[in-house]
């Protein structure tokens, strides 16, 4: 009679993004979340500029208005993270990464405001110029921001062991 041996597989370390959607799905979902955040930011920015806020204040408030819902939507939908976020491991690194986007958007909007001031561009035309500068700054850092969020902030720890 042949003897059958059983081999128990050793536990394996999870992939960096185990339990999360695949890369392309994460990218599309993060981009979709970013579009939602941008829409919220745009309404805020245009409204504040229309009411006479400075480009720096308007763009800073607009960025925060979009960043808050973006964090929760992207965290849950793009990276499948649930539960209470860890402050040191997730929230603080997230704030550092989105700070890059804020600097680019607020900086370019402020620069556009400084340029349009002496040119005496005003009213709706100025709002469009400032809005375009804000969007360009936001778009410039999206890819870098996504890579940092994907590889550093929302990366699953390598030490997680799955039972088989």
Please report the total strand number as a whole number.
2
Kindly provide the radius of gyration, computed on alpha-carbon positions and rounded to a whole number of angstroms: 22 Å
Tally of domains: 1
Mean pLDDT: 81
Name the beta content range. Answer: under 5%
- Report low-confidence residues grouped into runs of 5 or more: 5-14, 158-164
The proportion of residues forming helix, as a percent range, comes to 55-70%
Structural class: mainly alpha
Give the overall silhouette: elongated
Q: Report the oligomer.
A: single chain
Give the distance, in angstroms, between the N- and C-terminal Cα atoms.
Answer: 29 Å
Q: Count the helices. How many?
A: 4
How do the strands of the widest beta sheet line up side by side? 1-2
SSE arrangement, N to C: EHHHHE
Q: What is the makeup of the main sheet?
A: 2 strands, antiparallel
Organism: Prauserella oleivorans
Pfam family, one: GtrA_DPMS_TM
Domain GtrA/DPMS transmembrane: 34-154
Protein name: GtrA family protein
Provide a short characterization of the protein structure:
Keywords: Membrane, Transmembrane, Transmembrane helix. With 164 residues, the protein is mostly helical.
Report on this model:
This is GtrA family protein. This protein is mainly alpha-helical. It has one domain. Helices cover 69% and strands 2% of the residues. The protein has a two-stranded antiparallel ribbon. α2 runs antiparallel to α3 and α3 runs antiparallel to α4. It starts with 11 loop residues before the first strand and ends with a strand.
């Amino acid at each position: 009679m042949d003897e059958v041996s059983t081999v128990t597989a050793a536990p394996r370390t999870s992939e960096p993004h185990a339990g999360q959607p695949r890369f392309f799905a994460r990218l599309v979902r993060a981009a979709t979340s970013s579009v939602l955040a941008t829409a919220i930011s745009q309404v805020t920015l245009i409204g504040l500029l229309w009411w006479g806020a400075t480009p720096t204040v308007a763009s800073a408030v607009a960025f925060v208005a979009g960043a808050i819902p973006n964090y929760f939507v992207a965290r849950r939908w793009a990276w499948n993270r649930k539960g209470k976020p860890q402050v040191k491991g997730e929230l603080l690194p997230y704030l550092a990464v989105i700070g890059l986007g804020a600097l680019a958007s607020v900086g370019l909007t402020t620069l556009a405001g400084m340029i349009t001031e002496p040119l005496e561009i005003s009213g709706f035309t100025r709002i469009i110029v400032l809005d375009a500068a804000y969007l360009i700054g936001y778009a410039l850092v999206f890819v870098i921001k996504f890579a940092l969020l994907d590889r550093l902030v929302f990366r699953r720890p390598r030490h997680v062991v799955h039972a088989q």
